[in-house]
Amino acid sequence: MKTWIAFSNILMKDIRSYYLKPPNISWGLIFPVAWTLMFFLRSPVAVEVRDLLPGVMSLSILFGTTSMLAVTITFERKSRSFERLLLAPISLNLLMLAKTSGAIIFGVVNAFVPIMFAAFMTNLAGINWPIVLFSVLFIAITSTFLGLFIAVSVSQVFEAQTFSNFFRFPMIFLCGLFIPLPDLPLFLQPVSYALPLTYGADILKTAINNNGIIAVPLSFLMLLAFSAFLFSYSIYNVNRKWIL
Amino acid sequence: MKIIEAEKLEKTYNGFTAVKGVNFHINRGEIFGFLGPNGAGKTTTINMLTGLARITGGRVKLLGEDYTGNPRKAQAMMGIVPDESNLYEELNGWENLSFCGALYGMERNWREEKAHQLLDQFGLEDAAKKPFKAYSKGMKRKLTIAAGIIHEPEILFLDEPTTGIDVAFARQIRNLILDLHQKGTTIFLTTHYIEEAERLCERIAFIVDGEIVREGTVAELMKEAQGENIVNFMLGGDFKEVKTEFTATFPGFEYRIGKDGVVSVHSPESFTLMPLVQFFEDRGFPVYEAKIARLSLEEVFVKVTGLELKKMQNRKEARV
Questions:
Q1: Phi then psi for B177, rounded to 5 degrees?
Q2: How many angstroms away from the CA of B112 is the closest CA of chain A?
Q3: How far is B48 from chain A (nearest CA, A)?
Q4: Number of domains chain A is built from
Q5: Which CATH class is domain B2-223?
Q6: Best label site of B1, B96, B192, B235, fewest CB within 10 Å?
Q7: ipTM, interface predicted TM-score of the complex
Q8: What are phi and psi of A205, to 5 degrees?
């Protein structure tokens, strides 16, 4: 019970302090619109909104979660308020889960903004909603833990931003959203399969347009494996680098 | 009863040993002072005791139970006030206190009531809804102390609580510490203000370069450093006229005459004042004042640590 009080209060504080701030709400709205427009503008032929959904949703989650978490944790660490959390009588695993839960919820909400827009523009019948829901959750968890991995690897806020882009931009181009995986140069294909977003985006493709190329259970398993690795490594890093 | 025990506690960072196998204990309900210059290892010791720094060597016990490597077990009983305020800038005073209470699992009603009570006690009720970033340095310090005690810890760690704040606030904080002590809280206080330690602490450890060079009650440390007994006399005549007779009458005593005419009488043994006063009165020297000279804790600290430094230097020279 006591642990739950600590967990829920850390989560609620983060939601109030970071995720419900007007700039972040506008980010959640503007970002998917900007990505949709970009896809429309780059294409020489008419683009079906539904075809864009997996890409826009994946990128909204990736950018939303990694940007927020990497910056907020680095900021709290810099201002020493994170020490207060480390001194609380709760386990480090639970503390980091509380800190990341806000970003996961933010990522899930971000993913449904494009769906809401799309609902007014196209027919969404035939979408496998349970799989969409689970894939959004899994992508949000993996991306958040990637943000955590970045946050515990740097010490300055600007480093967090730079380091995030080091992971995010290659992922955008290599995860199969712009260029289908089989069309990528052969030497880049292994890199593509080593990126978590590849699996997340592919599940969404299957669930929304039935054109994914990787088996859905395998993709979920890969996302789970990435999440476990990123979270464990982050905890290891916190223990090694922050508790000196 | 010992609440905290540190045995051969050691901390090494990248080959540099910041704390060198220190041994000490804190009794339940006392104010224990950790006194030393900047960089002596005070904060590192607190960090090891509270779980913010990994212990490289030795062990720590809470109420006899070893919690080395498992600080979570002990953290529920501890309140920590760091040397720099580490509350949330964007939250107001009341929210900060309530949040800190929640971290220790306090139910909402309890922590909210306690937050109001502390804001009132610390004179911060008018600033309760102000964001922490708008607080003055003294107010920040007070709120940080309030955040450290909201869960009513058994032991409170105060790291340099009055550093960098004005005299009036520092005085208020010292009174708060004494108030907490009266209520039974054990307090571990680090400071480099010797007067503060002298005023507040029951037992003190001097730490220099990561080593505890002396430990004891204020009276014990003073007695040990004092070495001899000194009484200062303010007389109504020139002492030089009777100095030969004085030496003959009191052979074991030494005297020094200060620039202000005050005569300091020194003896390795304790002595009564009456024979001396009588001596001066009989020779027509009225005694206006006779005052027992007592070393300040600052003088004790300099004397003790100076001795130790000399010894260390000698050891090093001997090795060379």
A1: -60, -45
A2: 13
A3: 9
A4: 1
A5: alpha beta
A6: B1
A7: 0.88
A8: -60, -45
